[in-house]
């Protein structure tokens, strides 16, 4: 994950996962190391707009070197509100879509790939919606990126997709050659293999990837699936009131 923070005492773009704001690894050191390794693809998950703005000039410089060796740089960010995030006018919890796309579109034209997602509240029992998919499609159309479908991956939470797979199928149908990556978040309990197996029935194998943690014991995974649903339901419909 790329953030704006401190390496020792210097404020630069760093590699860290929120809420940490300090690191012993700067973005520049990380990306240069990846560039020297001829075997790896790189996915950069931008958590802050400031970090993205600082990193893009260096990415622009390195994209040709990655492509020369058959590798890809994925530019990832949550650019729209998703399940559990209700105030669509508040961009404080996700990166502004217009600003991020302005930063990225020339890199996509050069050969970088986009990994786009929706900011969500975990745990949640709220599925993705067709309206959320249409907003994402509108962003791609605005920046004339729908023809770059083979360079676009949509990152979506596995449990939310399981609640209603139709919006994701709709998105894949509208953005040809695009793919989806189903994930479980850091701190999110592992899923059951039953859930993942059912998702595989509904989603095209050649357009779907999985970055999920599954329980080694099926009954525990099922228990987690049920618990996450009801706990998410409680948090969403009965939120704590601020005093």
End-to-end Cα distance, whole Å, is 34 Å
Roughly how many Å is the radius of gyration?
18 Å
Structural class: alpha/beta
How much β-strand is present in the residues? 15-25%
As laid out across the biggest beta sheet, the strand order is: 4-5-6-7-8-9
Oligomer type: single chain
- Largest β sheet strand count, sense and barrel closure: 6 strands, parallel
Order of helices and strands: EEEHEHEHEHEHHEHEH
Number of strands: 9
What is the general shape? globular
What count of helical segments does DSSP give? 8
> Which spans have pLDDT < 50 for at least 5 consecutive residues?
none
Specify the helix fraction band.
40-55%
Indicate the mean pLDDT: 85
For the structure shown, list the relevant keywords.
Menorin_dom; six-stranded parallel β-sheet; 42% helix; globular; 243 residues; transmembrane helix; alpha/beta; Menorin-like domain-containing protein; 8 helices; 9 strands; 20% strand; membrane; three-stranded mixed β-sheet; transmembrane
Summarize the SSE layout with pairings.
Layout: E1 2-7, E2 10-15, E3 22-23, H1 27-36, E4 42-45, H2 49-68, E5 73-81, H3 97-110, E6 113-119, H4 130-142, E7 152-157, H5 158-163, H6 166-174, E8 179-183, H7 193-202, E9 208-211, H8 218-237
Parallel strand pairs: 1-3, 4-5, 5-6, 6-7, 7-8, 8-9
Antiparallel strand pairs: 1-2
Helix pairs in contact: 1-2, 2-3, 4-6
């Amino acid at each position: 994950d790329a953030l704006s923070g401190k390496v020792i005492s210097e404020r630069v773009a760093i590699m860290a996962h929120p809420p940490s704001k300090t690191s012993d690894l700067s973005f520049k050191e990380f990306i240069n190391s990846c560039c020297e390794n001829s075997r790896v693809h790189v996915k950069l998950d931008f958590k802050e707009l400031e970090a993205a703005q600082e990193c893009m000039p260096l990415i622009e410089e390195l994209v040709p070197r990655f492509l020369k060796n058959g590798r890809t740089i994925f530019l990832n960010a949550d650019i729209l509100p998703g399940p559990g995030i209700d105030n669509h006018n508040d961009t404080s919890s996700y990166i502004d879509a217009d600003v991020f796309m302005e930063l990225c579109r020339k890199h996509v034209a050069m050969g970088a790939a986009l990994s786009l997602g929706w900011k969500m509240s975990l745990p949640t029992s709220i599925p993705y919606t067709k309206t959320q998919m249409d907003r994402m499609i509108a962003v791609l159309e605005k920046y004339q990126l729908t023809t770059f479908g083979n360079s676009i991956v949509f990152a979506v939470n596995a449990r939310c997709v399981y609640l209603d797979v139709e919006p994701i199928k709709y998105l894949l149908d509208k953005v040809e050659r695009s793919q989806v990556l189903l994930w479980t978040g850091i701190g999110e309990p592992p899923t059951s293999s039953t859930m993942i197996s059912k998702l595989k029935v509904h989603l095209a194998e050649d357009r779907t990837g999985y970055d999920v943690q599954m329980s080694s014991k099926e009954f525990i995974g099922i228990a987690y699936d049920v618990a996450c649903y009801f706990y998410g339901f409680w948090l969403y419909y009965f939120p704590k009131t601020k005093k």
